[in-house]
Each structure stands twice: as C-alpha cells, then as structure tokens.
Amino acid sequence: MKWAVISVNFSLLIYMFMPINSKDESVGKKNPNRLTKILPDASHLDTLLDLSHKNICCLHVDDFRLFTKLSILNLSHNQIEEFEFEVFQFNTALEQLDLSHNKLTIIRCNSLHLIKNLKTLNLSYNNFATMYICKEISLLSKLEYLGLSAVQIQKLDFINIAHRELRYVFLGIENLQEYEVGSLQLLNTSKLHITLPIYLQSPFLLHDALNTSTTLEISQITCDAYFCDYPTSALSKINKHSKVSTLILSNITMPWNEMSNVLQAVWRSSVQHLYIYTYTLVHEFVYKQKDFSNGSLKSLVIDHVIQKVFFFTPPHPLNIFSEMLVENFTFSNADITHLFCPPWPSIFRTLNLSKNRITHEIFKECDNLTALELLNLQSNRLQKISKVISMTSTMKSLKYLDLSQNIIDYDQTEKCNWTESLVFLNLSENRITTEVFACLPINVQILDLSMNQITSVSKGLEHLTFLRELNLASNHLKDIPDCHLMSRNLRVLNVDDNGIYSPSVAFYQSCQYIKTLSAGRNPFQCNCELREFTHIEKMTPGKLSGWPDSYRCKYPEDFKGVLLKDFYVFEISCNIYILLGIVLGILLVVLAIIIFSCKYFDLPWYIRMLFLWIRTKHRVKNINKHELEKGKRFHAFISYSEEDSEWVKNVLIPNLEKSDGSIKLCHHEKHFIPGKTIVENIILCVEQSFKSIFVLSPNFIQSKWCHYELHFAQHALFGKNFYNLILILLDPIPQYLIPNKYTRLKAIMKQRTYLEWPKERGKHALFWANLREAIGVNLTSDEEEDIDWDFKGAITPV
Ligand SMILES: *[C@@H]1O[C@H](CO)[C@@H](O)[C@H](O)[C@H]1NC(C)=O
Ligand SMILES: *[C@@H]1O[C@H](CO)[C@@H](O)[C@H](O)[C@H]1NC(C)=O
Ligand SMILES: *[C@@H]1O[C@H](CO)[C@@H](O)[C@H](O)[C@H]1NC(C)=O
Ligand SMILES: *[C@@H]1O[C@H](CO)[C@@H](O)[C@H](O)[C@H]1NC(C)=O
Ligand SMILES: *[C@@H]1O[C@H](CO)[C@@H](O)[C@H](O)[C@H]1NC(C)=O
Ligand SMILES: *[C@@H]1O[C@H](CO)[C@@H](O)[C@H](O)[C@H]1NC(C)=O
Ligand SMILES: *[C@@H]1O[C@H](CO)[C@@H](O)[C@H](O)[C@H]1NC(C)=O
Ligand SMILES: *[C@@H]1O[C@H](CO)[C@@H](O)[C@H](O)[C@H]1NC(C)=O
Ligand SMILES: *[C@@H]1O[C@H](CO)[C@@H](O)[C@H](O)[C@H]1NC(C)=O
Ligand SMILES: *[C@@H]1O[C@H](CO)[C@@H](O)[C@H](O)[C@H]1NC(C)=O
Ligand SMILES: *[C@@H]1O[C@H](CO)[C@@H](O)[C@H](O)[C@H]1NC(C)=O
C-alpha cells in the first residue's frame, strides 16, 4: 500500500516533533483530526492499516472516520495509554484489532458493541493493573481470539468471559506475580497459549493450564540451571485425565536430562501430539534409559534444536529416538549427523529428518523400519544413489522418499534395486545426470528431478508405466522430451527453465495424453519453427501451465522479452512455397499489365515521348542561350505541306499559341512579308526563330517548298544545333517514299527522333507537353523591344 508508506514517513516526521505522552492530546479532548490529516483520503478504501511502531500516543474519535472498510488494524508497539472503542464508530467492518505493547491502563468498553464483527482482540503487554475484561467483550458474538496480559490473575477477572467459547486465548504473563487457583479453568477455549512466568513458580498455574484446553502452548520456558525442578516437575504432573491432547512447547531452554523427564511424563498422558519448537539444549546431552514403548503419543515433532553441548559419552543419546514407539517422528533442523536403527521392529510411519547433516551411514542394513511409509531426508548430506537404494531396500512399506537438496549423484551402480513400494521420489536439487534414467524405482508415480544436470531424456522412462508426474525443471534439456519414451500414464510434465530454444514439433504429436505441460522460462528463439509450439495453447487451452507470462522470447535480440502469445510472423515469411507463389503471381500480374497497356494504351509511345521529353530537357539546359537568342523573334517556324495546313491551323497553332502568348510561331500565311520572295521570307522566318518545326507526312515529301525549307533549315541549323529542329510526324511515311537525295531526312526517320502525332485523343496532352518542352526557350529581355507583340515574360522558363 503506497499511501501507507507515504503517510508513515510523514507521520513519523510529525511525531518526532511531538511531545510523547502529552496529556492534552488524549482521547476526546482538544485533539485535532490528526490521523486523518496524516493519512491521505485515498486510503479510505483500504481494509488493512498497519500503524505499529509509530509512536502514537492518542486517538481521536474522528481518526478512523474515513476508513469505513477497515477490517484489520494494527496499533501495537505504540504509546497509547487510554482507549475508547468509540473511535471505531464508523468502522463496523473491523475484524482484527491489535493493541498489544502499548501503555494502556484504562479501556472504555461502552462502545464496544459498535464493532460487533470483531474476531481478534489483542490487548496483551499493556499496563493494566488487573487482567480486566469488561463484560461487553462477552457480547461480541464473533470473537475468537483474545490476547491478554497481567501481573495477577484472579477468578474474578475471567468471570465476564467464563465459559464463553473462544478459539484461542493468549496470555502474556511472564511478569505474573499472583495466581488464584482454578482461574484458568474458567476459560472455554480450544487453544490456550501462555508464556511462562519468570518469578512466580506456581505449580497450580501449569496444572490448571493442562486442564483448560485441548491445545496448550507454553512458551519461554527457561531453565538454565543443571537441575530445574520447576517447571518440569509441574509439567510431569500431566496424566491420562488431563484435558490437553496437543502440547506445544516453544522457545525453550533446558538440559537434556529435564527434557527427557518431560518426554517420559508426556508419553503416557492425554497428549497425543507433542511439538517442541526452538529448543536450546544446554549443559548435557546424555543417554537416559527411558521407556518409550506403549505410549499414547502418536506424533512427536522436534523442530529447530540449538545445541550448546558438543560432547557426550556412549551410548549415544540419539538412541533414545530410535527406541521410541511413535507413529510420526520429526527431528528437523537439528544438525544431527545420524539416527540409529531401531533395536526392535519400529512403528514409525513417517520419519522427517529434514535439514540436518545426515550422511549415507544412516539406517545401514536396518531391517526394523518395515512400517515406514514416508522418509524425508531433504536438505542433508547424502551422496550416492546406490547407498540410498541399499538403505531403503528393506523398507517394504516406503512410499514417499524425499531426497531433495542433497549432493546425490548417479554412480553408475549395477544394482538399481529400489524398493518396489516407492511411488513418490523427490531428487530435486542434487547432482543427478542423464544416466539416472537407467536407475529409477519401477512403480514410481511422481518423480521430481528438477534442479539437476540432466541434458536429455534417454531410454528407460518407458518402463515406468505408472509415472504420472515428471518434473525436469531447471535442468539442461535442449528440447522437450519425446513422449514415445515415456509411459502413457504421464499427465504432468514440467520442463520449465531449461535450455529449450526451439521445441520440436514431434513432441506435440507424441505427447497428446499429457494434460499439463509446463515449459516456461526457457530461452525461446522466436522464429518460424516456434509457431507450431505457440499453437498448442490455441488448440488445447489450459494445457500450457504458466501461459502466457512465463513464455517469452529470448532470441533474436529484437524480440527479447516479448510474450510468445504476442509473437507473430507472417505465414509467407515461413513458407518458401507460398513466397515463391506470391513472387510468381506478382510477376504474372505485372506482365499482364504491361501486355494490356501495350495493347490498349500504346505504352511504347508514351515511353518514347517521355524519353524525348527528358532528352530535350537535358539538352535545353546545355544550350548557350545568349548566343542562340540573339535576334530571335519567334519560338518556332513551322514548315508544312499545303495539304496538312488544315491540321496546322486548326490543331497545332491553336494549341501552341495559347492565349497566354507564351509561344510565338512564325508561319508563312501570317508573317510572310509581302514584296519579298518566298525564299527570302523562308530564310527570314527561319533565322528569326529558335526552332524549326517540320510537320512530316507523305504530303510533305511531295511539296517542293517544304523540301526547300527543310534543306535550308538543315544548313542553317542542323550542323551544330541539331536540337533546333523539331520534327512532327503527322502521318507515317514509308521509307521508300523519301527520295534518296534527302539523306538527312532518311536518317532522321530511321532514328525516329521525331514526335509522332497520336491518333488517340487521350495521348494528345502528353504530345503537347512534349512539344512545348521541345520549343520552350526563353527570349531574353534585351530583345523584347524588337518584338512587335507583347511577351511580358510569360514564357515558361527552361
Ligand atoms: C502488528 O505488528 C506487529 C509488529 O510489527 C506484529 O508483530 C504483529 O504480528 C502485527 N499484528 C497483526 C495482527 O498483524
Ligand atoms: C498479540 O500480541 C502478542 C504480543 O505482541 C503476539 O505474540 C501475538 O501474536 C498477537 N496476536 C495476534 C493475533 O496478533
Ligand atoms: C464451551 O462452550 C461450548 C459452547 O458454548 C459448550 O458446549 C461447552 O460445554 C463449553 N465447555 C465448557 C468446559 O464450559
Ligand atoms: C524466547 O524466550 C526468551 C526468554 O526465555 C525471550 O527473551 C525471547 O524473546 C523469546 N523468543 C521468542 C522468539 O519468543
Ligand atoms: C482436570 O479436570 C477434571 C475435571 O474437569 C478432573 O477430573 C481432573 O482430575 C483434572 N486434572 C488435573 C490434572 O487437574
Ligand atoms: C504394551 O501394551 C500391550 C497391550 O496393549 C502389552 O501387551 C505390552 O506388554 C505392553 N508393553 C509394555 C512394554 O508395556
Ligand atoms: C502420521 O503420518 C501419516 C502419513 O503422513 C499420516 O497419514 C497420519 O495422519 C499421521 N499421524 C499422526 C498421528 O499425525
Ligand atoms: C531389529 O530388531 C530385532 C529384534 O526384533 C533385533 O534383534 C535386531 O538387532 C534389530 N536390527 C537392528 C539392525 O538393530
Ligand atoms: C518435515 O519437517 C519440516 C520442518 O519441520 C517441515 O517443514 C515439513 O513440512 C515436514 N515434512 C513432512 C513431510 O512432514
Ligand atoms: C531386489 O530386491 C528384491 C526384494 O526387494 C529381491 O527379491 C531381489 O532378489 C533383488 N534383486 C537383486 C538383483 O538384487
Ligand atoms: C521436492 O523438493 C523440493 C525442494 O525441497 C520442493 O520444492 C518440491 O516441491 C518437492 N517436490 C514435490 C513434488 O513435492
């Protein structure tokens, strides 16, 4: 909860500058809305508020007004002295309230009924003079947990909750000084948890405790002395008629001598389950002859032993545990290296020896563990599979074997004679290699081989016909194993966190019967091959466990971190045939378009025109314009046969000499000067024009004048300035029509360097554009005066 962190920092700041315990800040007085000021409004939706260790001294009636959804409030480890339940008038949803470790002396219960949903109330470790329980508490119908503390306990204290059924009562009574006999027995609770008083050594307290609830936890038992009569003698009074059936001794310090007395007393009592948590073993650890047969105790758990004794005299004190006739025994987290074989047929059903330093010397040639069903040797120092096999070979009932977190490797043993009863084997976190598949229990159903050094699944697994779950996570597999190599009963396969980058498709066909496949956290290479894999989830939803979050691309770099779910490649980039087909298809379409264009739109003509246009542009650029433009009045002179005059006058001239006057043409009908000879006129016209346009057609060839004009133009302009000649082919001229003497014309016709008049209307625009481009030459301004008609610079610049 972000807001909480922010507010905490803020409030700490405030508290730092606030006098702790200042009386004027207490409940209901002139105290401003402090907490609500500190905690931003956004928080009012939150159900949990941890205000422990905040140095809070006082609460105001309005403080929790906004937190209408509040269900868990932790106010422990603060400086609160007085408390009124009225502060929760807006918090009817409150279920858990921890007020432990404050300085409470007064508590006003008259508003307690407001929080009628309260289940847990912890008032332990406060400064109450007596263990005061207000009568309103008994009205909280949902109350299950009550935490209290006191220096004296009287029957009267509990009168208000006497026989009111609770689930858990915690009494933090280290500092108890007075105890009235019979007080505890007024409680009606399934579990009673007391801390042992340090000073008051009243045997009555423990007697009553043993007869109050079915579950009793006694913590903080400290007897450092070599002999400590109290509390062991008091505890030893436990008998078959006591009420307690589950006894928990937590955080205890005592010599082994005293502990074995307690064990012996408990052995034949009402207690069926004994838990010893965090036991500090002091002074001595010696073998004590005790009778641990025929007890009522069914399970003994000793978890976390801190040994302060490092030497002992034979017989080994640990023998005591082998001799115990108890169904379930846990001796965990105790740093032991060994446990002896029971000297008689044991009734152990489960043996939990996890987190010790046990080696393969354990249970060597031990034939008295035939009832054992579960053996947990997790986190020990076992090394060889063969040693484990021989250790377990006589355990005829062994079903569950946990060998995880050892240093076991497969030693290529010839004898792989696992006990046939084994159905669960955990070899996780060892040094197992691929060869192990030749040496597995034949009837195993659940096999955990995760966190080992397996590189592939070889033959051998198909013989394990009952195998249901196989865990190969965190090994060095390169591919998902082929299920042909496995039993058809396999339902769960885990290959998380291996080196699988491109799972083969074969797996999918062969593993149809697998219900759950877990293959996340592998370095997937996101390419075409991987698509088959991503299809698994689409085809069988729910089959891939951890999908989609655990499945991400590792390679290539561009896709790193991308979820496989979101990874997509186009079908064509993966299928060469589709790609080829598409390329061929495109080629065919292009070809068809070209053929169609040639046939219906005369594409070659357009291309030729385009080519000419580009060439003209290029040439015009290179002309020495100044030289050219001297004395020119016209853009072009037109030469044509009389027979073509209709086209020239009606089509060519109107189109070129548009209204903008950008192009001026010289043609004999308009600009020929009377009085001069025709030849003179032609020469004048040609000389005064930049370009000469010849309209070629069979008629042109026949015309005498045209020949003359062409001849003259050839001589006047061709030579260096070939580009000043523009030829328009109005009608096709067969080669044979051109007389041999017109070698230049013949050459021109052959080279096809003419503009062809297209018959189709649609092409005309391009023809005109090309022609204009060919003519387009700027007439420089100094010649403008000579020109008798208006140019006004409207000529398209070249
Ligand atoms: C309240 O906070 C204290 C100290 O952080 C913690 O020990 C205790 O368990 C908390 N109580 C609840 C009900 O969470
Ligand atoms: C009540 O407070 C005591 C002392 O802080 C603690 O040991 C116990 O766990 C608390 N109980 C709950 C339910 O928070
Ligand atoms: C405890 O309370 C339950 C329910 O109210 C009741 O049945 C039972 O007899 C009580 N036990 C004792 C010892 O008072
Ligand atoms: C264990 O008991 C000792 C006193 O015997 C006490 O100081 C210590 O805080 C306790 N530890 C826990 C975790 O309760
Ligand atoms: C426990 O109380 C029962 C009666 O409720 C009594 O018979 C028995 O002797 C008591 N046991 C002890 C150890 O006080
Ligand atoms: C254990 O109890 C059985 C009967 O329940 C009895 O035959 C046997 O002698 C007892 N053994 C010991 C050592 O007390
Ligand atoms: C002992 O362990 C077995 C197997 O784990 C379990 O079924 C049984 O309930 C346990 N018995 C006791 C008394 O805890
Ligand atoms: C197993 O128990 C028998 C007695 O039933 C005993 O003779 C034998 O020595 C025990 N085996 C071991 C290895 O202690
Ligand atoms: C064995 O003991 C450890 C430590 O007490 C515990 O965490 C684990 O659950 C136990 N395992 C079994 C199978 O009882
Ligand atoms: C394997 O053990 C069984 C009993 O568990 C035994 O009958 C069999 O002879 C043993 N086989 C080998 C090769 O040791
Ligand atoms: C095997 O042991 C490991 C480590 O102790 C544990 O995380 C895992 O859950 C166990 N496997 C099974 C199937 O219980």
Automatic annotation (TrEMBL):
GO terms for cellular component: plasma membrane. InterPro entries: Cys-rich_flank_reg_C, Leu-rich_rpt, Leu-rich_rpt_4, Leu-rich_rpt_typical-subtyp, LRR_dom_sf, TIR_dom, Toll-like_receptor, Toll_tir_struct_dom_sf. Residues 632-775 form the TIR domain. Keywords: Disulfide bond, Glycoprotein, Immunity, Inflammatory response, Innate immunity, Leucine-rich repeat, Membrane, NAD, Receptor, Repeat, Signal, Transmembrane, Transmembrane helix. This is Toll-like receptor 1. Its main location: membrane. One of its GO terms (molecular function) is lipopeptide binding. SUPFAM superfamilies: L domain-like (SSF52058), Toll/Interleukin receptor TIR domain (SSF52200). Residues 1-22 form the signal peptide. It comes from Pelobates cultripes. It is a single-pass type I membrane protein. Belongs to the Toll-like receptor family. Disulfide bonds join C416-C439. It holds the Pfam family LRR_8. It is found in: Membrane. SMART domains: LRR_SD22 (SM00365), LRR_TYP (SM00369), LRRCT (SM00082), TIR (SM00255). One of its GO terms (biological process) is innate immune response. Gene3D superfamilies: Ribonuclease Inhibitor, Toll/interleukin-1 receptor homology (TIR) domain. The chain crosses the membrane at residues 576-601. The lineage of its organism: Eukaryota, Metazoa, Chordata, Craniata, Vertebrata.
